[in-house]
Structures are given as C-alpha cells and as structure tokens.
Amino acid sequence: MNKYLLAAAALLVLGTNVAFAHITLETQEAAVGSTYKAVLRVPHGCDGKATTAVRVQIPEGAIAVKPMPKPGWTLQTKKGKYEESYHLYGQAVSDGVKEVDWSGGNLPDEFYDEFVFRATLTADLPAGQKLYFPVVQECGDATDRWIEIPAAGQDEDALENPAPGIKLTPKK
Amino acid sequence: MVDTTSKLSGWLAGGLLALLMAFTVMASTDQAFAHAALIKTDPADGAVLAQAPTRLSLTFSEPVSPLVLTLVKPDGTPLPLTSFRLTDQTIEIDNPQALKSGTHVLSWRVISADGHPVGGSLLFSIGAPSEPPAVPEAVDWPLREAIWIGKVLLYIGLFMGVGGAFALAWLSGEGRPGQRFVSAAVLCGLVAAPLSLGFQGLDALGAPLSHLAQPVIWRTGLGTSFGWTVLVALISLGLGLLSLAGPHRAAKPFALAGLAGVGAALAASGHAGAAEPQWLTRPLVFVHGAGIGFWAGALVPLGLALRRQTADAVVFLRRFSLAILPVVAVLATAGIVLAVIQVQTPSALVGTAYGRLLLVKLALLVFLFTLAAVNRWKLTASAEAGATEVQRRLTRSISVEMLLVLAIFGVAAGWRFTPPPRALAIAAAQPVSVHIHTLQAMADLTITPGHAGQVGASMIIMTGDFGPLDAKEVTLVLSKPDSGIEPLKRAATKPGDGSWRVDNLVIPVPGRWTVRIDILVSDFQIVKIEAPVDIRP
C-alpha cells in the first residue's frame, strides 16, 4: 500500500514539476481575426538561477504587437518584414514587431512573474491548429529555450522544452 | 666424381634455399594486417527502406577481397551477387533485381591478408520488416575437422618429417635410425599439404566437403596467403625427401634448406605472421618454426638410436644435447614475443578462445620442458657415458616427449579457428558511424571506439539538402530506455575543422542506444534528429 502511495506521490510531484517547469500562456485559446492578450507565465528560473531576460518570437500571422512595459525591465522590440502582407483596419501591413525582449531584470527562482503583450491574430491563420510563440529565457549565462514545436503527429507532451502555444478557434 | 656430385647438389640446395626465401619475401609483401572487421554498411543493419536500394556497400577495417556475396530474399531464395567493385576498403555491390518488400539478408564472406576468411550477414527491409529468411548454419563442423586434421598432419610432415631429415643428416651419424618413420612423416606431409589447400578453398567459399573436386575451390585456396604456405611446405617436404633418398653427400645442404623451408612455410600465412610489425613477426615465426623442426624432428631418431643402442647413439645424443639449449632459447623467446603481440593483455588469456588455447599449449610446454630438462641435465651425462639402464629411461622419456609434441601440434592447429585477441582488439577499436538524415537537417556521427567505455564523438552537421549548416549549439543525447539509465546529455564543442565534438563521454553499457542530436539552428529554432546506434561490448 505504502508503495502505491509513494508511487502516486512521486507521480504527482514529477507531474506537477513538469507542468510548472514550462513557460506557458495563460489563455490557451483564441479566435482568428481577434485581438489576443498574451500573458507569458514564468514560474521559475533556469535550473535555480534568477531570470534576467525573456525574449519571445512573434510568429507569422500575429501582427500589430504591443508589449506591456514592466518596471525594472528594459523593453525592446525587433522589427522586420512579414512574409506576407496583411490588412488591418483597411490598411496594408507588411512589417512590424517580430521579437519582444524584456531584459535587465531580476526574477529570482523562488518568485513568479508574468510578461504581457497584445497581438492581432489575422483572419488568414488556420483555425483548428496551434500557433506557437517560442520563448528564450535567459538567466545570466544560462539559457533555457522554450522553442520546440511538435512535428506533425508528434505528441506535444513528449517535448522537453515546448514552445508556449495557443489553439486557434474559428473567427467569431 | 663423388666430389662433383656433392658440390652440384650443394649448389642445388643453396639455390632452392634462396628460392624459398624469395617466396617468403614475396608472400609478405602484400600488406598484411589482421582479421578484417566490418565497420560500416549501406544500408545499415536493420534498416527499413522505402525503396529497394540500387547499390549495397560494405566497408571493412582493411582491404579485403570478396569470396561469396549472396542476397537471400524474403522467401528464402538465395541470389548470388556477382557484380561488385572494390574501392579501398569498400565493396560496392550492384543490386541486380528489383526487390520486393520484406526483410532481405545480405550474406557476405571475404578474405583478408592473414588468409583466414571471415563472414557475416546484414539484414535490411524494404517497405516493412517481415520474418527474416533462414540463412544456412554458419559453422561446417566436418570441414572444420578436416581442416584441423590436415593442419596436424602437415605439422607432422614438416616438423617430424623435414625436421627428422635434418636430424638424420646433421646429428645422427652413420646409423640413420628411424629413417623409415621420418620418410613416412614426410609422405604424410606431402599428402596433407595439397589436401589442406583444398580445405582452405572450401572454407574460403563456405562450400561443403563434397565440393572438394571442383577446380574453383582449388583456385580459391591457392589464391589465399595459405597457398604460399602450401607451396613452400611442398618444396620443403621435397627437400626433406631428397635429403633422405638423394646422394649421401648432399643430404646435409638439402636438409638445411628443408628446415629453413619449414620456418618459411609457417611465416607465409597465419595469425602470427600477419601481425604487425611485420619485420618482426615474420622472422620470429620463421625462427620459431625452424626451431620446432630441429627439436621435434630429432626426437624419434634419437629415441630409436638409444633403444637400439646403435654405434653412433652416444655421438647423436651429444650433438643434440649440445645444440638444443640455444635452439630452445631462441624458440621460446620467439614464441613468447609472438604470444605477447597476439594476446596483448593478460585478461585475454582467459577471456578469449585464442588465449585459452595458448594456456593449454603453455601447460603442455611446462610438462615438455620439465621432461626435456630432466633428460638434458639428469640423464644425458650418464647416457653419454654408456649407462644402458639410463639410456632406456631416456628412450621412454623421449617417447612421452613425442606424445606431448603431438598434443601441442593439435592445440596449435586449433588456432586456425580462433581470431587472436590482437585482431579482436583492432575490431573492437573500430568506430561506429551513423548517418541521420531528415528534411530539416542531417548529421554524420562517429563514435570512437565503437564499444562501451570511454569514447569520443564527432559530428558533421549539414542541412537536409547537403548544404552548410552553421549551428549555434549542438548537443548530443544518448539514451537507452530499456537499461534504466538516464539519458547522457553533452554539449558539443567546435574544434575548428567544421565538425562538432564531444570528448570524455562514457557509454556505460553496450547494446542498442538511441542517439539524438539537438541542433540549435537559430535563437528560436531547434532541430532534433535521432537514430539508433549499436554499441559493441
């Protein structure tokens, strides 16, 4: 009996560890053609070290990105050309933010924090599929890369460092 | 007139001796290494292919020449593969037919410089694996026995026959005791030598004993380095016969040339002569063989001389006991050096079949040397002084020595079937390579040596279409889920030659591991590719 309890406890601890270990998005679903408020949840540092930077790559199809500044962190964006041209409020948009960096901060391993940005999900994005926002977490000289995207047919849970993603739902 | 004859035969014997030496040198010029080991195959063993390959290739640790290549189809029908090309250490084989789906076996048999054929098979599947077709049993025991008996008889012919002729010509004096036995031994060798060649041909082609009459068997046997051994042995046996039956004055040079031939015949093929460094091993085998001939050859004539109490028995004994000490010293030294080269580590003495045979031989030698020492220091002096009872004891002791020598021949002939630890070590030190190819990236991974323990890994990373891939980071991950060992994860470094390396990696257990290479293509893009790799024990 004890053995089963121990096994169950171990599973619980391991299971929660894995779930907590990843950087994830608070809202896991969004409709295409809507504005999405992304809240990146950073539950820990890199192997015990304090987080000093969080960088997120904006996927193709997410436009008009506006990050929310954080006290104590330097906010920067990298802009570039999109692969395609999109229409936003009747205007053609072909470039914009491709990467958002919060750096120079200090988030100790034992604390939790969130990093927020807003993006418009274009109507061309394929509903029913997932859209990923790869994140690089830097902790001084250590780096954790939450950038793995499952290949077709691959189980997302099998990934070691999955990129945070959302499920796209049909346009409302 | 007599003088002219003897001079003539002296020249003749000298010429033959020179010829023998020339043969040995020629036999040793073709770069000789050890048993060949298979390093890499295409397709890989166990591979599942979408389509039938147009070409198959086998890469060995040294140059080889193929003897038999057969493709066994899923329904069990063998298909001989006759169209192939040799480039360095690789055999490229054309696939003659469109293959159906299912598991195929490529059965190969090649020969390397030591004259010993090696074989193996490689499984690959087209479409999906099926029940592998049955491949015939690898060991042909009747043939092995025939090879072994042929070898023992050849040893008897060379050592007791030609060696005996030497003892009769140089040591025995006028009586020539045991001439009939020596002649019989030479004849035995003359029969065994060509038969052994046929057996070698059968072994080389993996053919059963019943095919012995086919010409191709004999051509193949002659084409291996053992062909040289047989040729030189036949010349040496002929010289022994000439020394026994030819003009009396010429007996000595013929016998000397014959004894040199014994050494040369042994040096021409076999594990010991094929080992590196060649400049050392071939002469050592030569000296070892000639020494055995001197010792073993004298035993029967000496024993008979003492039993019959011939007039020259005491002279024979004196000459033999005078010469035997330096001969045995050289013989033993050569044997020890060769054994050290072959066995390398003491643990291989018990750990390998070759080492165990050596232990048996050493045990027999301890007996033999004890007997010989008793003979030499206890009995010889009194026997030389003419003590009849002691001479009788000496005769008995020599008979036992004879039996021991025969047993040693039997053990030494068994080495024909056991690769020496030296060759096993060379095979074990070979790297394992794996080629991983995906749409996003590909990698050539080489793990050196390819066995469990401390290894180094080297990787060449390219894009899926063979373009350059300047990765930011490369991580090697080795896992073996069935072993309960946590994955081994090591960051690779760039030594600057375009490759990525992981040093001081320890693979704890042999078997099938999964190797994964994590390639960080850019800040936000990682490609993980994996493949199985077989780590040898």
Detailed description of the structure:
The complex is a heterodimer of chains A (172) and B (537). Chain A is mainly beta and 172 residues long. Chain A is built from one helix and twelve strands, in the order αββββββββββββ. Chain A has a single domain, classed as Sandwich (Immunoglobulin-like). The longest helix of chain A has 20 residues, at 2-21. Chain A has a five-stranded antiparallel beta sheet, with no helix packed on it. A four-stranded antiparallel beta sheet of chain A has the order 1-3-8-5, with no helix packed on it. Chain A has one helix at 2-21, and strands at residues 24-25, 29-31, 35-42, 51-57, 62-67, 74-88, 91-107, 113-121, 130-132, 135-139, 142-146, 165-169. Chain A starts with a helix and ends with a strand. Chain B has helices at 2-29, 141-170, 179-205, 215-223, 225-245, 251-267, 271-274, 278-308, 313-343, 347-351, 353-384, 388-414, 421-429, and strands at residues 38-42, 47-49, 55-60, 65-72, 78-80, 84-87, 90-94, 102-111, 117-126, 432-437, 441-448, 453-463, 473-480, 485-491, 500-507, 511-522, 525-535. In chain B, the strands form four sheets. Chain B has a five-stranded mixed beta sheet. A four-stranded antiparallel beta sheet of chain B has the order 1-3-7-6, with no helix packed on it. Chain B is elongated and about 100 Å long. In chain B, helix 2 (141-170) packs antiparallel against helix 12. The relative contact order of chain B is 0.09. Chain B is 50% helix and 23% strand. Chain B folds into three domains: 2-30 and 141-416, no CATH class; 38-126, Immunoglobulin-like (Sandwich), CATH 2.60.40; 429-535, Immunoglobulin-like, CATH 2.60.40.1930. Chain B is of the alpha+beta class and 537 residues long. Classes of the chains: A mainly beta (172), B alpha+beta (537). Chains A and B meet through loops of A and strand 17 of B.
